[in-house]
Amino acid sequence: MAKSLKAWITILLLVASGTLYAQQQVTGTISDENNDPIPFTNVLIKGTQQGTTSDVNGKYSILAEEEQVLVFSYIGYSTVEVPVGKQSIINVQLKAEIGSLQEVVVIGYGEVKKQDLTGSVAVLDTEELTRFPVANLGSAMQGRLSGVQVVNASEPGANPQILVRGFGTIFGDPNPLVVIDGLQTGVGALANIDPNSIESLQVLKDASAAAIYGSRAANGVIIITTKKGREDSFEVNYSSEIGVQMAANRFDLMNTEEYADYTSKLYVNSSTGLVQRRPPAWTQNPDVLAVSTDWQNEIFSPALMQNHNLNFSGGGKGSTYYMGFGYLNQQGVVPQTGFERYNFQINSQIKRNKFTAGQSLNLFYRDKPQSELTGNASRIYEVAPQIPVSDPDNLNGLGAPLPSRTGGNNMANPLAFQFRETETKTYGVLGNVYAEYEFVKGLSLRSDLNIDLSSVSFQRLRTPVDQSQAAITRNDTEILLRNFTNTQLNSETILRYNRMISDHSFNIMVGYTSIHTITKGVIASADNLEPGTRVPQTGLNQLGSAEYREERLLSQLARVNYNYQSRYLFTASIRRDGSSNFGKNHRWGIFPSFSAGWQLGDEAFMAPLDWLSTLKIRAGYGELGRTLGSFIATMNSDIRYPWPTGMFNGTAPLTVPNEDLRWETVKQYNLGIDMGFFDEKLRVNVDLYSRQSEDMIIRIPVPQYTGIIDQPWFNFGSMVNKGIEVELSYNHQASKNFNQQFKFNITLNRNELLELDNTQDTLVANGTLTTIGQPVAVHYGWLTNGINPQNGSMRFRDLDGDGLITGNDRVVLGSPHPDAFFGFTWSANIRNFDVSLFLQGVLGNQIMNESLQQLGSTHRDRNRLRSVLDNAWDRENNPEGTWPIISLRDENNNDRISERYIENGDYIRVRNAQVGYVLPDGLFKGAVKRVRLYASVINLLTITGYSGLDPDLNNNGDVFSLGRDTFRYPPMRSYNFGVQASF
Predict the structure, then answer these.
(1) Do 853 and 899 contact (CB within 8 A), yes or no?
(2) How far apart are CA 70 and CA 26, in angstroms?
(3) What is the CATH number of domain 21-99?
(4) Pure H helices in 278-371
(5) DSSP characters over 369-430
(6) By CB neighbour count within 10 A (0-12 exposed, 13-18 middle, 19+ buried), where does 716 fall?
(7) What is the pLDDT of residues 325-384, one digit of tens each?
(8) Which residues contact 393 (CB under 8 A, 6 or more apart)?
(9) How far is the C-alpha of 156 from the C-alpha of 333, rounded, in Å?
(10) How far is CA 229 from the centre of its chain?
């Protein structure tokens, strides 16, 4: 028995000693592709929960057996597995994944790795910008980023509207702040930049991310960084694109025969027992009826677009440079419209020991001709179709609306407006100069000086147009000249300190900034000019005025970023702003924020979930401020008073002062979760937010007898936007010669007015209602109840039961705010071919179709939609008609705002479809690195139930025009061909 027990003990000792002998100490260093160490990397023995992490220098140590496998993983890098074998030293280099969280995100006055981000920041793939030829950079952002709603303007050179997390104000500009290489400016600057010169574009969406910009960031922040060169390199890039644009949609209008039928009914049906009316004679004239002009065909013509860019970049030891030239010329489908831009960008940087200096400079010139037809496009659609395009008997050779030909429709030949000129030319500079000195490792001081200088020259010349008895009534020449210069100087001094102590990382920043803005300009106008001159002094009724405005903003700011092992993250910032727009009682505002993040996926207990590569939870709160208007009283000297001997210039109060005007405050909460699956092939980001505006700066009406022209500014009311944002991306590498990528984002937002002011709880303006408990500026009007079979008038519902149809019978007809907006991108590479498809859309909003309200009206002598004849009530021929009777008489006000003109604005649009081909390397020798040819279609297809020209409506920042379609510039579809080459 003893011998047996002794034998078993011997066996166990031998096994144990063998096991111990098999284990060995494995050490090594983990680095990235640049041989920089990666701290806190997970090192796990495959199939077990045994593991360790690397230290701040990327070094690790672990006990492992020969037959085991070590798994090295870190967020944003491909996982690496290495068999141990007999190795005692295993050094590993991790490769960054596509779309890696290791990429640097610009957050304002600094940068942070995406994995360490605690706020809500949307990052745009700049490669997508160069694949989308548009005149304005803001338009290229549409549908690309969650939480960022872009509403386009079809007219070349027009600024899109950009809303970050909803419409956050009732009065004033709802667009975000734009920061270009540190220069703080507005969205108008997006039209001055060549997209080819952009290195990165981020949008700071929540207050915890944007609060470092304080009072200017209440509507979010777009941060743009232009390209820089690389040391020890030289590269030349050239791109060229040419395209043709065409009107993508048109109204179905009456031809001459149908318009004659409509006009006959218009007059006959307006007869009364005492007055019998007959159709105009032209409706029976064969010569007149023989002409049928499609004015949309005559006005809308194919238009060319060309876009060229050439840039050089490179550098030597301690220095880099980038130089780019850009030219864009986009003609419009409407005569005398278009946009032309020249760009010159030069960036440079030099570094010597602890001193760094550099600059970025963008010089631009843009020219934007306009047509009076775009300001009142009804001139295109309502003009009589029986007017001939040309008439050699007229001075200008154009057909005219003679009474014998058109009766009461005296609208002028739309082509006559080409003899009038409206043009805006802008010269400008966007520049930044900086210097930075590092006192000791991690401690540096940087000073920046930025300038935003633009000179705008506007000219409108209206020359006399002889159309015999046309509706262009002025028979003299008038001119209006405006010249404005805007100068903004920004200075910033920032002290930074970065330090890592063991597993703790600190990034501390304090700074002081100053922004000084001066706007000055002159306006001159006159009429009855001497023929052939453009000098106001030669004319009559001369008017002139001048404008000068100066604003200052001083700020102190501080921010702390802290993380422990890149696992537990915390950010806090505070900014104190002082604005000259406020009186001394409320000049300063303090705007704090904080946010935290937890890399839950890095915890040891998550290690068995090898399919989950990232799991981070973020939360934050912050406050932002907003200024609008001024507490200062202003006067208007451009007032004309009648006097028995003529008109005289005078002065009147423009507004009144308000010493108690104070900051509007935006409080925002954010909760987010970032997830990555299967080594970051699939990524999901979700954010929930609440954004509440308090002490809103709004205008309060004053009695007219005061003589005040503009309503003064006061602090009243509050409003909230709540929503959820979702982003998904998936990268699929099927083989060496085939990969594809999917991206999808969707945002759901709800707007609600919480309080208006202390004197009223509703505001009715421009057919909208703003009231507590509803979104701002909802559509407001009457409900109909069919056609009155006695007289063909529209019946409106008497909701208050008083027997009358009054303003008290109006109800909310719909909301112009979308419930959701989204974007979807699919791209693939198949050997040398690449293909991409980009869809964008909006859901859940209603549009007030004022185009239908006007073109569908049945009581005016104007051309109309063809459907009017089919739908209009007629006692004998169409007693089941659903539109009012065709008649010049309309005592019932049939065209008032009602649900008849409210339509769903849902749409899905194929914004861009593109196919490219990279020429084989074997075709080139020497300097040519890459040549890509491509073809694309912009606005290929729109799926919508909306009957207007385009459901994508830009209201130019006016909330009371939100979702109102008033004869917009026609949407354009373009076919483009281009080449991109690198040398």
Answers:
(1) no
(2) 10
(3) 2.60.40.1120
(4) 286-289, 295-299
(5) EE-HHHHSTHHHHSS-TTS-SB-TTSTTSB----HHHHTT--PPPGGGGGGSEEEEEEEEEE
(6) middle
(7) 999 999 999 988 999 999 999 999 999 989 999 999 999 999 998 888 877 788 899 999
(8) none
(9) 9
(10) 28
